[in-house]
Protein backbone atom coordinates (compact mmCIF):
# COMPACT_ATOMS: atom_id res chain seq x y z
CA UNK A 1 0.00 0.00 0.00
CA UNK A 2 1.37 3.43 -0.93
CA UNK A 3 1.87 6.23 1.58
CA UNK A 4 -1.00 8.17 -0.01
CA UNK A 5 -3.41 5.22 0.32
CA UNK A 6 -2.35 4.66 3.96
CA UNK A 7 -3.09 8.33 4.75
CA UNK A 8 -6.55 8.04 3.12
CA UNK A 9 -7.44 5.00 5.24
CA UNK A 10 -6.42 6.74 8.46
CA UNK A 11 -8.47 9.98 7.98
CA UNK A 12 -11.38 8.94 10.21
CA UNK A 13 -9.14 7.63 13.02
CA UNK A 14 -7.05 10.79 12.88
CA UNK A 15 -10.16 13.01 12.95
CA UNK A 16 -11.73 11.45 16.04
CA UNK A 17 -8.39 11.36 17.90
CA UNK A 18 -7.31 14.88 17.06
CA UNK A 19 -7.38 17.59 19.70
CA UNK A 20 -7.34 21.38 19.39
CA UNK A 21 -3.84 22.51 18.58
CA UNK A 22 -4.28 25.79 20.37
CA UNK A 23 -5.66 25.90 23.92
CA UNK A 24 -6.44 29.57 23.43
CA UNK A 25 -8.79 28.75 20.55
CA UNK A 26 -10.56 26.12 22.67
CA UNK A 27 -10.98 28.59 25.52
CA UNK A 28 -12.41 31.16 23.11
CA UNK A 29 -14.89 28.57 21.85
CA UNK A 30 -15.98 27.75 25.40
CA UNK A 31 -16.47 31.45 26.18
CA UNK A 32 -18.55 31.89 23.01
CA UNK A 33 -20.72 28.89 23.88
CA UNK A 34 -21.14 30.19 27.42
CA UNK A 35 -22.21 33.60 26.11
CA UNK A 36 -24.71 31.98 23.76
CA UNK A 37 -26.11 29.91 26.61
CA UNK A 38 -26.57 33.06 28.72
CA UNK A 39 -28.47 34.71 25.91
CA UNK A 40 -30.79 31.69 25.77
CA UNK A 41 -31.76 32.01 29.44
CA UNK A 42 -35.11 33.36 30.54
CA UNK A 43 -38.03 31.24 29.32
CA UNK A 44 -40.65 33.80 30.28
CA UNK A 45 -40.25 37.09 28.48
CA UNK A 46 -42.60 40.03 28.87
CA UNK A 47 -45.92 40.53 27.08
CA UNK A 48 -44.56 42.55 24.15
CA UNK A 49 -45.52 39.82 21.71
CA UNK A 50 -42.40 37.71 22.25
CA UNK A 51 -42.61 34.05 23.04
CA UNK A 52 -43.17 33.38 26.76
CA UNK A 53 -40.94 30.35 26.44
CA UNK A 54 -37.75 31.83 25.04
CA UNK A 55 -36.16 30.54 21.86
CA UNK A 56 -35.97 26.98 20.67
CA UNK A 57 -32.35 26.43 21.49
CA UNK A 58 -32.70 24.77 24.88
CA UNK A 59 -32.73 21.06 25.57
CA UNK A 60 -36.09 19.63 26.50
CA UNK A 61 -36.83 18.71 30.13
CA UNK A 62 -39.88 16.83 29.00
CA UNK A 63 -38.55 13.56 27.59
CA UNK A 64 -40.95 10.67 27.24
CA UNK A 65 -40.09 7.07 28.03
CA UNK A 66 -38.00 6.96 24.90
CA UNK A 67 -36.16 10.13 25.71
CA UNK A 68 -37.99 12.18 23.10
CA UNK A 69 -39.77 15.43 23.90
CA UNK A 70 -43.46 15.56 22.98
CA UNK A 71 -43.12 19.31 22.53
CA UNK A 72 -39.90 19.65 20.54
CA UNK A 73 -39.75 20.68 16.93
CA UNK A 74 -38.46 18.41 14.21
CA UNK A 75 -34.98 18.91 15.59
CA UNK A 76 -35.89 17.82 19.10
CA UNK A 77 -35.52 21.27 20.67
CA UNK A 78 -37.86 22.36 23.40
CA UNK A 79 -39.02 25.88 24.28
CA UNK A 80 -39.54 24.89 27.93
CA UNK A 81 -36.42 25.20 30.05
CA UNK A 82 -35.44 27.87 32.53
CA UNK A 83 -31.92 29.03 33.28
CA UNK A 84 -31.40 26.22 35.76
CA UNK A 85 -32.55 23.49 33.41
CA UNK A 86 -35.62 22.83 35.53
CA UNK A 87 -39.13 22.62 34.17
CA UNK A 88 -41.45 25.51 35.13
CA UNK A 89 -44.37 23.11 34.82
CA UNK A 90 -44.70 20.94 37.92
CA UNK A 91 -47.44 18.43 38.30
CA UNK A 92 -50.56 19.79 39.99
CA UNK A 93 -51.12 16.38 41.47
CA UNK A 94 -54.89 16.62 41.10
CA UNK A 95 -56.67 13.38 41.81
CA UNK A 96 -60.27 12.53 42.44
CA UNK A 97 -63.40 11.63 40.61
CA UNK A 98 -64.31 13.28 37.35
CA UNK A 99 -66.79 16.13 37.22
CA UNK A 100 -70.29 14.59 37.16
CA UNK A 101 -71.57 16.68 34.27
CA UNK A 102 -68.55 15.90 32.14
CA UNK A 103 -68.61 12.16 32.84
CA UNK A 104 -72.36 11.89 32.32
CA UNK A 105 -72.00 13.51 28.92
CA UNK A 106 -69.75 10.66 27.84
CA UNK A 107 -72.02 8.05 29.36
CA UNK A 108 -75.13 9.46 27.68
CA UNK A 109 -73.41 9.20 24.32
CA UNK A 110 -73.64 5.40 24.52
CA UNK A 111 -71.20 2.81 23.29
CA UNK A 112 -69.36 3.65 20.09
CA UNK A 113 -70.25 1.68 17.00
CA UNK A 114 -67.30 0.69 16.60
CA UNK A 115 -52.12 18.88 -4.46
CA UNK A 116 -50.45 20.16 -5.70
CA UNK A 117 -48.85 22.89 -3.63
CA UNK A 118 -45.62 24.79 -3.56
CA UNK A 119 -42.91 25.27 -0.96
CA UNK A 120 -43.01 21.78 0.52
CA UNK A 121 -40.30 20.90 3.01
CA UNK A 122 -38.72 17.84 4.60
CA UNK A 123 -39.41 15.34 1.85
CA UNK A 124 -38.03 12.36 3.75
CA UNK A 125 -40.44 12.01 6.70
CA UNK A 126 -41.29 8.46 7.69
CA UNK A 127 -44.15 7.38 5.43
CA UNK A 128 -45.15 4.65 7.90
CA UNK A 129 -46.62 7.19 10.36
CA UNK A 130 -50.43 6.76 10.35
CA UNK A 131 -52.01 9.88 8.88
CA UNK A 132 -55.45 11.42 8.48
CA UNK A 133 -56.98 14.25 6.48
CA UNK A 134 -58.34 17.38 8.10
CA UNK A 135 -61.43 17.16 5.90
CA UNK A 136 -61.26 20.66 4.39
CA UNK A 137 -61.11 20.78 0.62
CA UNK A 138 -57.94 22.48 -0.62
CA UNK A 139 -56.29 22.54 2.80
CA UNK A 140 -55.67 18.80 2.71
CA UNK A 141 -53.87 19.25 -0.62
CA UNK A 142 -51.59 21.76 1.09
CA UNK A 143 -50.57 18.99 3.51
CA UNK A 144 -48.60 16.32 1.73
CA UNK A 145 -49.77 12.94 3.00
CA UNK A 146 -52.03 14.20 5.80
CA UNK A 147 -51.43 15.05 9.45
CA UNK A 148 -50.03 12.35 11.74
CA UNK A 149 -52.58 10.65 13.98
CA UNK A 150 -52.63 11.60 17.66
CA UNK A 151 -51.12 15.02 16.91
CA UNK A 152 -52.28 18.02 18.93
CA UNK A 153 -53.33 20.88 16.63
CA UNK A 154 -54.58 24.43 17.10
CA UNK A 155 -56.51 26.76 14.82
CA UNK A 156 -55.84 30.43 15.62
CA UNK A 157 -58.04 33.23 14.32
CA UNK A 158 -59.96 36.35 15.22
CA UNK A 159 -63.74 36.54 15.52
CA UNK A 160 -65.62 35.48 12.40
CA UNK A 161 -62.79 33.58 10.72
CA UNK A 162 -64.57 30.22 11.09
CA UNK A 163 -62.69 28.52 13.91
CA UNK A 164 -65.75 26.65 15.21
CA UNK A 165 -66.73 25.62 11.68
CA UNK A 166 -63.14 24.41 11.16
CA UNK A 167 -63.43 22.17 14.22
CA UNK A 168 -66.87 20.83 13.33
CA UNK A 169 -65.76 20.06 9.78
CA UNK A 170 -62.71 18.26 11.15
CA UNK A 171 -65.03 16.01 13.19
CA UNK A 172 -67.54 15.55 10.37
CA UNK A 173 -64.83 14.16 8.11
CA UNK A 174 -63.86 11.64 10.77
CA UNK A 175 -67.47 10.62 11.36
CA UNK A 176 -67.94 10.06 7.64
CA UNK A 177 -65.01 7.65 7.76
CA UNK A 178 -66.36 5.59 10.65
CA UNK A 179 -64.46 7.32 13.45
CA UNK A 180 -65.80 8.31 16.88
CA UNK A 181 -65.52 11.96 17.86
CA UNK A 182 -65.90 14.35 20.81
CA UNK A 183 -66.70 18.07 20.64
CA UNK A 184 -66.18 20.09 23.84
CA UNK A 185 -67.49 23.65 23.67
CA UNK A 186 -66.85 26.36 26.24
CA UNK A 187 -68.61 28.99 24.13
CA UNK A 188 -71.94 27.61 22.91
CA UNK A 189 -74.67 25.28 24.06
CA UNK A 190 -75.12 21.69 22.94
CA UNK A 191 -78.24 22.77 21.05
CA UNK A 192 -76.43 25.56 19.20
CA UNK A 193 -73.67 23.21 18.05
CA UNK A 194 -76.16 20.60 16.84
CA UNK A 195 -78.15 23.28 14.97
CA UNK A 196 -75.00 24.56 13.26
CA UNK A 197 -74.12 21.06 12.06
CA UNK A 198 -77.74 20.36 11.06
CA UNK A 199 -77.87 23.54 8.93
CA UNK A 200 -74.98 22.14 6.92
CA UNK A 201 -76.55 18.70 6.62
CA UNK A 202 -73.83 16.96 8.59
CA UNK A 203 -76.17 14.66 10.50
CA UNK A 204 -74.71 15.11 13.97
CA UNK A 205 -77.93 13.98 15.65
CA UNK A 206 -77.72 10.65 13.85
CA UNK A 207 -74.08 10.16 14.81
CA UNK A 208 -74.89 11.04 18.41
CA UNK A 209 -77.74 8.51 18.45
CA UNK A 210 -75.34 5.87 17.13
CA UNK A 211 -72.97 6.56 20.01
CA UNK A 212 -70.14 7.78 17.78
CA UNK A 213 -70.38 11.46 18.71
CA UNK A 214 -70.40 13.25 22.07
CA UNK A 215 -71.08 17.00 22.12
CA UNK A 216 -70.31 18.42 25.57
CA UNK A 217 -70.98 22.00 26.62
CA UNK A 218 -69.07 23.17 29.70
CA UNK A 219 -68.94 26.45 31.54
CA UNK A 220 -65.32 27.68 31.37
CA UNK A 221 -65.36 28.69 35.05
CA UNK A 222 -66.57 25.27 36.12
CA UNK A 223 -64.02 23.60 33.87
CA UNK A 224 -61.20 25.69 35.34
CA UNK A 225 -62.33 24.83 38.87
CA UNK A 226 -62.41 21.09 38.12
CA UNK A 227 -59.51 20.96 35.66
CA UNK A 228 -57.42 18.73 37.93
CA UNK A 229 -60.16 16.09 37.86
CA UNK A 230 -60.79 16.50 34.14
CA UNK A 231 -57.10 16.24 33.36
CA UNK A 232 -56.72 13.09 35.42
CA UNK A 233 -59.75 11.27 34.07
CA UNK A 234 -59.86 12.51 30.46
CA UNK A 235 -57.52 9.89 28.95
CA UNK A 236 -59.52 7.00 30.43
CA UNK A 237 -62.85 8.47 29.38
CA UNK A 238 -61.65 9.07 25.83
CA UNK A 239 -60.33 5.52 25.67
CA UNK A 240 -63.62 4.12 27.00
CA UNK A 241 -65.58 6.13 24.44
CA UNK A 242 -63.20 5.06 21.68
CA UNK A 243 -62.68 8.62 20.43
CA UNK A 244 -60.47 9.08 17.39
CA UNK A 245 -60.84 12.88 17.11
CA UNK A 246 -61.51 15.57 19.70
CA UNK A 247 -62.16 19.30 19.39
CA UNK A 248 -62.00 21.86 22.22
CA UNK A 249 -63.59 25.21 21.33
CA UNK A 250 -61.95 27.32 22.62
CA UNK A 251 -58.82 27.06 24.72
CA UNK A 252 -58.73 30.87 25.06
CA UNK A 253 -61.75 30.84 27.36
CA UNK A 254 -59.99 28.32 29.57
CA UNK A 255 -56.79 30.39 29.57
CA UNK A 256 -58.54 33.59 30.62
CA UNK A 257 -59.79 31.91 33.81
CA UNK A 258 -56.29 32.31 35.26
CA UNK A 259 -55.08 35.78 36.22
CA UNK A 260 -51.46 34.83 36.82
CA UNK A 261 -49.44 34.01 33.67
CA UNK A 262 -47.41 31.36 35.50
CA UNK A 263 -50.58 29.57 36.66
CA UNK A 264 -52.04 29.82 33.16
CA UNK A 265 -48.96 28.29 31.57
CA UNK A 266 -48.86 25.45 34.07
CA UNK A 267 -52.54 24.54 33.76
CA UNK A 268 -52.63 24.71 29.97
CA UNK A 269 -49.41 22.71 29.69
CA UNK A 270 -50.72 19.96 31.96
CA UNK A 271 -54.05 19.89 30.13
CA UNK A 272 -52.47 19.55 26.69
CA UNK A 273 -50.20 16.80 28.03
CA UNK A 274 -53.27 14.88 29.21
CA UNK A 275 -54.70 15.13 25.69
CA UNK A 276 -51.50 13.68 24.28
CA UNK A 277 -51.63 10.89 26.84
CA UNK A 278 -55.16 10.13 25.67
CA UNK A 279 -53.81 9.23 22.22
CA UNK A 280 -56.55 11.11 20.36
CA UNK A 281 -56.05 13.48 17.42
CA UNK A 282 -57.05 16.81 18.92
CA UNK A 283 -57.96 20.16 17.39
CA UNK A 284 -58.02 23.19 19.69
CA UNK A 285 -59.31 26.61 18.68
CA UNK A 286 -57.82 29.83 19.99
CA UNK A 287 -58.49 33.53 19.65
CA UNK A 288 -55.73 35.42 17.88
CA UNK A 289 -53.69 38.07 19.62
CA UNK A 290 -55.19 41.52 19.04
CA UNK A 291 -51.87 42.87 17.77
CA UNK A 292 -50.54 39.81 15.98
CA UNK A 293 -52.75 37.50 13.88
CA UNK A 294 -49.99 34.88 13.85
CA UNK A 295 -50.03 34.41 17.62
CA UNK A 296 -52.65 33.12 20.03
CA UNK A 297 -54.33 35.37 22.56
CA UNK A 298 -51.86 34.57 25.32
CA UNK A 299 -48.96 33.35 23.18
CA UNK A 300 -48.80 29.94 24.87
CA UNK A 301 -50.78 27.28 23.06
CA UNK A 302 -48.87 27.40 19.77
CA UNK A 303 -45.73 26.23 21.59
CA UNK A 304 -47.53 23.22 23.08
CA UNK A 305 -49.07 21.89 19.88
CA UNK A 306 -47.73 19.87 16.96
CA UNK A 307 -49.55 21.86 14.29
CA UNK A 308 -50.77 25.44 13.90
CA UNK A 309 -53.30 26.74 11.39
CA UNK A 310 -53.71 30.51 11.05
CA UNK A 311 -57.06 31.97 9.92
CA UNK A 312 -57.08 35.70 9.28
CA UNK A 313 -58.52 38.63 7.37
CA UNK A 314 -56.24 40.00 4.66
CA UNK A 315 -56.82 43.48 3.23
CA UNK A 316 -55.33 44.75 -0.03
CA UNK A 317 -54.23 48.29 -0.82
CA UNK A 318 -57.70 48.86 -2.31
CA UNK A 319 -59.23 47.79 1.06
CA UNK A 320 -60.62 44.56 -0.39
CA UNK A 321 -60.92 42.02 2.42
CA UNK A 322 -60.58 38.27 2.07
CA UNK A 323 -60.18 35.33 4.41
CA UNK A 324 -56.83 33.55 4.22
CA UNK A 325 -55.38 30.40 5.76
CA UNK A 326 -51.75 29.57 6.41
CA UNK A 327 -50.13 26.47 7.88
CA UNK A 328 -47.61 27.76 10.38
CA UNK A 329 -46.26 24.33 11.31
CA UNK A 330 -47.06 20.63 11.32
CA UNK A 331 -44.46 18.39 12.89
CA UNK A 332 -43.57 15.26 10.92
CA UNK A 333 -45.53 16.38 7.86
CA UNK A 334 -44.70 18.13 4.62
CA UNK A 335 -46.83 21.18 3.95
CA UNK A 336 -47.08 24.28 1.83
CA UNK A 337 -46.14 27.57 3.46
CA UNK A 338 -48.20 29.64 1.07
CA UNK A 339 -51.14 31.75 2.23
CA UNK A 340 -54.34 30.78 0.43
CA UNK A 341 -57.84 32.29 0.30
CA UNK A 342 -60.86 30.44 1.66
CA UNK A 343 -64.59 30.91 2.00
CA UNK A 344 -67.16 29.82 4.57
CA UNK A 345 -70.30 28.49 2.91
CA UNK A 346 -73.22 26.29 3.90
CA UNK A 347 -71.03 23.34 2.92
CA UNK A 348 -68.32 24.45 5.34
CA UNK A 349 -64.86 25.86 4.67
CA UNK A 350 -63.34 25.61 1.19
CA UNK A 351 -59.70 26.55 0.61
CA UNK A 352 -58.77 27.68 -2.90
CA UNK A 353 -55.38 26.06 -3.02
CA UNK A 354 -54.70 27.02 -6.64
CA UNK A 355 -55.62 30.69 -6.15
CA UNK A 356 -53.71 33.65 -4.81
CA UNK A 357 -54.92 36.12 -2.18
CA UNK A 358 -55.28 39.07 -4.59
UniProtKB/TrEMBL annotation:
This is KaiC domain-containing protein. Pfam families: ATPase. GO terms for molecular function: ATP binding. Keywords: ATP-binding, Nucleotide-binding. Coiled coil: none annotated. CDD domains: KaiC-like. Residues 130-358 form the KaiC domain. It comes from Haloarcula pellucida. Residues 1-129 are annotated as: Disordered. Residues 19-31, 79-102 have a biased composition (Acidic residues). InterPro entries: Circ_KaiC_arc, KaiC-like_dom, KaiC_dom, P-loop_NTPase. PROSITE patterns: KAIC. PANTHER family: UPF0273 PROTEIN TM_0370. Residues 32-42 have a biased composition (Basic and acidic residues).
Amino acid sequence: MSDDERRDDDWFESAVQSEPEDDTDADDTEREESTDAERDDGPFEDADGDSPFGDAGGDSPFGDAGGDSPFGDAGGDSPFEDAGGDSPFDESGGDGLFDDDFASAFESAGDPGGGGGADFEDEDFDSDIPRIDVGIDGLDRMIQGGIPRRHLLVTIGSAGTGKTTFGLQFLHHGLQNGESCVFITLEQSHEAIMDTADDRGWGFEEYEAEGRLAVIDLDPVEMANSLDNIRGELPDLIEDFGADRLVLDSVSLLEMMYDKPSKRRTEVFDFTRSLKDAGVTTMLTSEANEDNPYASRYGVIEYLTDGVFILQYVRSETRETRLAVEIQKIRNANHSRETKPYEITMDGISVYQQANIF
